[in-house]
Amino acid sequence: MATHKLTAAYGFQYRFKCEHCGQTTEWLSAMLSEEKEYQSVPLEGKELRLAAGKEFLAEFVEKKVPALREKVEAGDYTIPVELDGKCPFCKKQQSWEKVSGTGSILFAIALCVILAFVGRGIFISGAEAGNGHRQLAGLIVGISFALGGLVSVIVLILAVVKKAAIQRDMEKTTVRNKPEFNWPEIEPVKE
Ligand SMILES: [Zn+2]
Predict the structure, then answer these.
(1) 70 C-alpha vs ligand 1 centroid, how far in Å?
(2) Is the pLDDT assigned to residue 183 strictly greater than 90?
(3) What are the CA-CA distances from residue 69 to residues 30, 87, 177 (Å)?
(4) Other C-beta atoms within 10 Å of 96: how many?
């Protein structure tokens, strides 16, 4: 048995006119890519690989890429590709840029808090058992989760600060632009 990895990639370009200083950026590159791992047995490996690869690439080319284009052309940039909306001239963010969702960060914090309690629970039960090794293990787990919680809080604060800065900047201008896209003919890259 061997593990093979297949990568499909579609590169496209975009540029935008800054909503703050009015300058237009160069064409910027972005790429949609997807990986697939699969197992193959030595004898039939080549055939399996060809079949799996064909199916995977066909889905990427016929469904994933058109879906991406459709979404973006409808003005929805919540796509699995990062589009940088920071102006290279005045360094300000654009209104259309997707800012990291506070929802998912809050979820991460909630998870860390729960895990911290679980870690503390392990520590307490270890202490009750009076077992030195378990106590130590519990303490390490507890501290790890507490650190995880702390990092999440910092990430959340940074995201909130960034969002507030963007909002402040956007209040100073009424200009709302959309990025412009250049979609090349589909040419998937195989590895
Ligand atoms: Zn600018």
Answers:
(1) 27
(2) yes
(3) 13, 23, 18
(4) 16
pLDDT at position 92:
92
C-alpha 155 to ligand 1 mean position (Å): 26
pLDDT of 97 = 84
| Residue 3: CB atoms within 10 Å | 8
Q: For residue 88, give the nearest of 29, 173, 26 by alpha carbon.
A: 26
Per-residue pLDDT at 27: 97
Give the whole-angstrom CA distance, residue 49 versus residue 42: 11
Q: Tell me how far the alpha carbon of residue 31 lies from the centroid of ligand 1, in angstroms.
A: 23
pTM of the model: 0.65
DSSP character for 79? S
Q: What is the per-residue burial (b if ≥16 Cβ within 10 Å, else e) of 29-47?
A: ebebebebeeebeeeeeee
Please report, for residues 17, 89, 155, the alpha-carbon distance to residue 31 in angstroms, rounded to integers and kept in the order given. Answer: 21, 23, 26
Q: Count how many Cα atoms sit within 13 Å of the Cα of residue 58 in the half-sphere of its side chain.
A: 6
> Tokens for 58?
């066909």
Q: How far is the CA of 17 from the centre of ligand 1 (A)?
A: 8
Compute how many other C-beta atoms are within 10 angstroms of the C-beta atom of residue 153.
Answer: 14
Q: How far is the CA of 47 from the centre of ligand 1 (A)?
A: 52
Residue 105: CB atoms within 10 Å: 18
